[in-house]
Design goal:
With about 675 residues, the chain is mainly beta. The protein folds into 3 domains: about 240 residues, Alpha/Beta hydrolase fold, catalytic domain (Rossmann fold); about 170 residues, no CATH class; about 180 residues, Jelly Rolls. It contains 12 helices and 34 strands. The strands form 5 sheets. Strands 1, 2, 3, 4, 5, 6, 7, 8, 11, 12, 13, 14, 18 and 23 form a 14-stranded mixed β-sheet that branches.
C-alpha cells in the first residue's frame, strides 16, 4: 500500500491505497475558514467512503502531527476519509478562540459535518471522535443532531462540565489544574498561524489573537457554582438530545472516567462503554498498560454504524472494564495487572452495595456513635499525584502512608476473601465543622499486610454544596449534617489479607483550594458509613473476545533536537517557616523537528504550588509556559506566566503573555482580576 504525502511514498499494509491532503479550507456560513488535513483512499472519488472527524484546537501541522499520523492513516487505509480540523481561532483556522465549547465551536462542528457529508468522496455518513477536548465536543455536537452524524467515539471526556472537568470537583476549586490548564491554553492560543499555510497575513492574524484571546480562567473563576455557564455543553442536562450511537471510553488512571457510567445509565440510544488501566491517552498508546488495539476496535464500531456491516460489536456486553489487581504503590506503572470483565447492562443488577459502618477508626463498626475530630494540615494532598495523569513518571500517587497520617483513617479487618469493586463508592458521613466554610476529602485505600497504602480512588466535597452545587449554603458551626461524598468510579480487586481504608481530611491541597480558615472537622461514627459497589466474579469473563494488539501506521519523520524531560514532581518542606512547595514539570515533547514541515516545535512548562502550615490564605498556584516554533529565518516564541492566590473575600488572578519574533518582543499584556469568593 502506498501513502502519498507531499511527494513522499510510505509503505504500509492497509487494504486500500491512501493519499493525504495536508491542507484544505472548510468554509463556514459566516465567511470564516477552518483548516483541515484529510487522509482518504486514493479511489474515494470513484468509490465514496464515510468520513470521520477529529475536531480540536491543538494545531494539525505541528503539535499533534505525530499523534495524528498514528491514527488517521489507519482509518483511511480501511476505507474512510479521516479528517483533522483545527477549531476556529486555533492553528491555521480563522478567528479567535474565546473559551472551551462555546456555541460557535459546536455550530462550526455541525457545519463541518455537513460539508464532509456533501463531498464527492463521501457517502454522506459521518462519524466523530476525539480524546479529551475532542471527546467533549463529540458529545456536544452530537446533541445538536447533525443529520449526517451516525456515531461517535468519545475518549477521556465528560458529560458534566461542572462535576467532572478541570475546573471544579465536588464544588471545590481544582487548584492543581484550573490555573495550570488555563495557562496552557493561554500559551497555546498565542501560537501563530503557519506562514507556509496562510501566507503573509500570518502576522496580522497572530497579533489579533494575542490581543483578543482572553485568559479562560477569568470566566471559569467567575462561575464558582453550577449555573448556566456550566450547563451549556453538559449533555447530561438532556441525554435525549443525542440520537446517534455513542461509544464512551476512559481510563482508571485518568480524571475522566465517571462519565462512562453516567452515559450508559442515562442515554437510551445505542451505546457502549470501555475503561482500561490507562491515563489520559488513546488506548492504543495507553500507559499504564496493557494497551489495546483501539484502532481495530474503533474500526469495528465505524464499520457497524457507518457501513452497516455486521462486525458483531453490538452483540458484545455493553460495558467492558479492566479489573485492576492490587500492586505495590509507585509513581509510575508500565503495566497494571488485572483482567477484563464485562457487564451486559449498566447499572448492572449483579453489582450490589455493601455498607460498612464507620467505627472507632474502624470500618465495620457496631453502630456506636462517637465524635472524632481532625484539624486540617495544609500539607495534606501534596502527595496526591496528578489529577489528569499522562502516563509519565511521577503521575501516580506514591505510598499513601504519609497522607494517611494527616487524615482520619478507618480500617477494615483483614479480608478473609478477595473482594472486587466495580462502580462508584460513596461515603455517607455525619459531620460537623467549626467554620462556616469547609470541605472534606475522602480517599479509598488498599492496605497490604506490610502496611503499604495503595490509593484506589478518591473524591472531594465542598460542604457548603452538601445539598446543591447550584445553591450552596454556609455551614452552621457545630451543627451536624449528613452528606454524601462520592468517590471516583473504579474497578479494583482487594486481596484476602488486605485491609480497606477510608481516609478523611478537611484539606487536600493543591487538588482542593483550601478553605479560608483552618478547619477542625468532626466525623460521627455509627452515623457514618462507606458504601462499596461489590461485583462478584463470573466465569463468562474468561470467554470475552480478546482485543487485538495495537497497530500503528508508519510514523512521520521526527528529529529529536532535545529529548523530553517527562513530568517530574518535587515536594519541598521548610521545617522552620512551615512552607510547603510542590513543583511539577510539564515536558512531554522536548524540542523536535518535523522533517516534512521543516519545522522545529518545542514547549515546556512548570507549575508551582505553595502553602504555609496553619495559613490557608497563603496558598498560591503559579504556572509558566514557553512555546517555540522555528523554520529557517522564521522564529517565534510565546511565554505565559499565571498566578492564583486569595484572601478571605476574593481570589486574585494575574496572567502575563509575551510574544517574540526572532529576538524582538512584539507583544506584551497583563491581565489582573479580583474575583469574589463564592462559598469556596
Amino acid at each position: 500500500m502506498t501513502v502519498r504525502n507531499q511527494g513522499m511514498r510510505i509503505r504500509a499494509s492497509f487494504p486500500r491505497d491512501i493519499r493525504e491532503i495536508s491542507h484544505v479550507w472548510i468554509p463556514m456560513s459566516d465567511g470564516a475558514r477552518l483548516a483541515a488535513r484529510i487522509w482518504l483512499p486514493e479511489d474515494a472519488e470513484q468509490s465514496p467512503v464515510p468520513a470521520l472527524l477529529e475536531y480540536i484546537p491543538y494545531r494539525k501541522n505541528d503539535a499533534t502531527a505525530e499523534r495524528d499520523a498514528a491514527i488517521h492513516p489507519y482509518f483511511a487505509g480501511h476505507g474512510y476519509a479521516s479528517v483533522r480540523v483545527d477549531i476556529r481561532g486555533s492553528g491555521d483556522s480563522d478567528g479567535i478562540l474565546y473559551d472551551e465549547y462555546l456555541a460557535q465551536e459546536l455550530e462550526d462542528g455541525a457545519e463541518v459535518i455537513a460539508w464532509l457529508a456533501g463531498q464527492p468522496w463521501c457517502t454522506g455518513a459521518v462519524g466523530m471522535f476525539g480524546k479529551s477536548w475532542g471527546g467533549f465536543n463529540s458529545l456536544q455536537v452530537a446533541a445538536l443532531r447533525p443529520p449526517a452524524l451516525k456515531a461517535i467515539v468519545s475518549v477521556d471526556s465528560t458529560d458534566d462540565r461542572y462535576a467532572d472537568d478541570v475546573h471544579y470537583m465536588g464544588g471545590c476549586l481544582l487548584g492543581s489544574d484550573m490555573l495550570s490548564w488555563a495557562s496552557t491554553m493561554l500559551a497555546y492560543n498565542a501560537r501563530p498561524p503557519d506562514p507556509a499555510v496562510v501566507g503573509e497575513r500570518w502576522r496580522k492574524q497572530w497579533l489579533e489573537r494575542l490581543d483578543e484571546t482572553p485568559p479562560f480562567v477569568e470566566a471559569w473563576l467567575s462561575h464558582q457554582r453550577r449555573d448556566g455557564f456550566w450547563e451549556h455543553g453538559s449533555v447530561c442536562e438532556d441525554f435525549a438530545a443525542i440520537e446517534c450511537a455513542v461509544y464512551m471510553i476512559g481510563g482508571w488512571a485518568d480524571a475522566y472516567r465517571n462519565a462512562v457510567f453516567r452515559v450508559l445509565a442515562g442515554y437510551d440510544g445505542p451505546r457502549k462503554g470501555l475503561i482500561g488501566p490507562w491515563s489520559h491517552n488513546y488506548p492504543h498508546q495507553g500507559k499504564p498498560g496493557p494497551a489495546i488495539g483501539f484502532l481495530q476496535d474503533a474500526l469495528r464500531w465505524w464499520d457497524h454504524w457507518l457501513k452497516r456491516e455486521d462486525t458483531g460489536i453490538m452483540d458484545e456486553p455493553m460495558l467492558r472494564v479492566w479489573m485492576q489487581d492490587a500492586v505495590e504503590p509507585r509513581t509510575f506503572y508500565d503495566q497494571r495487572p488485572g483482567r477484563w470483565v464485562a457487564e451486559e447492562s449498566w447499572p448492572s443488577p449483579r453489582v450490589v452495595t455493601r455498607s460498612l459502618a464507620l467505627g472507632e477508626r474502624t470500618l465495620g463498626g457496631d453502630g456506636t456513635e462517637a465524635a472524632l475530630q481532625i484539624r486540617g494540615a495544609q500539607e495534606a494532598g501534596l502527595a496526591a499525584g496528578t489529577w489528569c495523569a499522562s502516563g509519565v513518571p511521577g503521575d501516580q500517587p506514591p505510598d499513601q502512608r504519609e497522607e494517611d497520617g494527616l487524615s482520619l483513617c478507618f480500617d477494615s479487618e483483614p479480608l478473609t476473601e478477595a473482594l472486587e469493586l466495580l462502580g462508584i463508592p460513596e461515603a455517607v458521613l455525619t459531620v460537623a465543622s467549626d467554620r462556616p466554610l469547609a470541605l472534606v476529602a475522602g480517599r479509598l485505600g488498599d492496605v497490604a499486610p506490610d502496611g503499604s497504602s495503595l490509593l484506589v480512588t478518591r473524591g472531594l466535597l465542598n460542604l457548603t454544596h452538601r445539598e446543591s452545587h447550584a445553591s450552596p449554603e454556609p455551614l452552621e458551626p457545630g451543627r451536624r449534617y449528613e452528606v454524601r461524598l462520592r468517590l471516583g468510579a473504579i474497578a479494583h480487586a482487594f486481596q484476602a489479607g488486605h485491609r480497606i481504608r477510608l481516609a478523611l481530611s478537611p484539606t487536600y491541597f493543591p487538588w482542593a483550594w483550601p478553605s479560608p480558615e483552618p478547619v477542625t472537622l468532626t466525623v460521627v461514627t455509627g452515623a457514618s458509613r462507606l458504601e462499596l459497589p461489590v461485583r462478584p466474579p463470573r466465569r463468562e469473563d474468561d470467554d470475552l473476545r480478546p482485543f487485538e494488539r495495537p497497530e500503528f501506521p508508519p510514523p512521520i519523520e521526527i528529529e529529536r533536537v532535545d529529548a523530553p524531560r517527562g513530568g517530574g514532581r518535587e515536594i519541598r518542606h521548610d521545617l522552620v517557616s512551615g512552607r510547603h512547595e510542590l513543583v511539577v514539570g510539564v515536558d512531554h515533547f522536548g524540542a523536535r523537528r518535523l522533517v516534512r514541515e521543516d519545522l522545529l516545535y518545542a514547549e515546556r512548562a512548570i507549575d508551582t504550588f505553595t502553602i504555609v502550615e496553619g495559613e490557608p490564605l497563603s496558598a498560591m498556584a503559579q504556572s509558566h509556559w514557553t512555546v517555540q516554533l522555528e523554520r529557517g529565518e522564521w522564529r517565534v516564541r510565546v511565554e505565559t506566566s499565571s498566578s492564583l492566590s486569595g484572601d478571605s473575600e476574593a481570589f486574585h488572578l494575574t496572567n502575563v503573555l509575551e510574544a517574540y519574533e526572532g529576538d524582538a518582543r512584539v507583544f506584551g499584556k497583563t491581565w489582573s482580576r479580583r474575583l469574589p469568593r463564592d462559598l469556596v
